[in-house]
Amino acid sequence: MASLPSISPKSLPPLTKPLKPTKTQKPFTQLPLPTTFRRSSAVTSAVSGDDFGIIPAKSSKLAEQIESAVSVLQESEIVGGGAVVDLDKMIDRIINASIVLAAGSFALTKLLTIDHDYWQGWTIYEILRYAPQHNWSAYEEILKTNPVLAKMVISGVVYSIGDWIAQCYEGKPLFEFDRTRMLRSGLAGFALHGSLSHYYYEFCEALFPFQDWWAVPIKVAFDQTIWAGIWNSIYFIVLGLLRLESPVSIFKELKGTFLPMLTAGWKLWPFAHLVTYGVIPIEQRLLWVDCVELIWVTILSTLSNQKSEARLSEESTETTNSSPSEE
To answer: How far is residue 192 CA from its own chain's centroid?
Structure first.
């Protein structure tokens, strides 16, 4: 068997000798730096100087690019939030329109179908002619059987519509009203105005049983001092409680608005109550008063909510101004 040739250490090439680059291969030091490495080097050079041999001015361009990217992201978030807000408004508008259309359709159907049991063969003219008369007869029958409930329902509907008119008067679109606010006003009219007014008119007639012409101005004066002050205060307090406001805030606002509300009513009610106490029978008075209430509730609701919103804005301003001083 042949023996392997011996290899001496001197015959091996030195390990420290650099390799010469071939013609098709560039030296390692001439390879281009990756993009990410160049950007990180630019940031590093902006902080620690020219350690990597990159001009620090390029860092400003990078900062501008970052700022532009952040601004684009912020704009996209704003646009996305606006889309969500628009979607919420559209949903509220659809709900409000459905409520209005459903309530209007129900009322119109009940009014026009009062004679549906025996209108077979009737013409449209006959239906429109006799429907108001028969609805009035049905209303009088309800007043005899359950007068308090009938008046509560009428006042609740009137106070809800009055608040809706007030919101439209304040600048809100037709179907973008505040449902909670309208419900509060309607609840105050249903639970309190209808029932209290029923007993008040009976009390007023018992207090002033005179049927002469001079008794009318006395009843109007009593109505526009004692009763107007009582009811305006009740309405204002009830709305404040339904808004979950503190009793201190409610009575503070009531103290500042009591006389303005009372004097504002003197521009409307004395003329209306000349008809109320001089012409309208006692059992029909609340219906006439509720028709005028559409105007008055608009005034009351607008004044009440304006005072509440002004107070909330003042409290938020005070909180904002006091927070820096505490820090």
So the answer is: 25
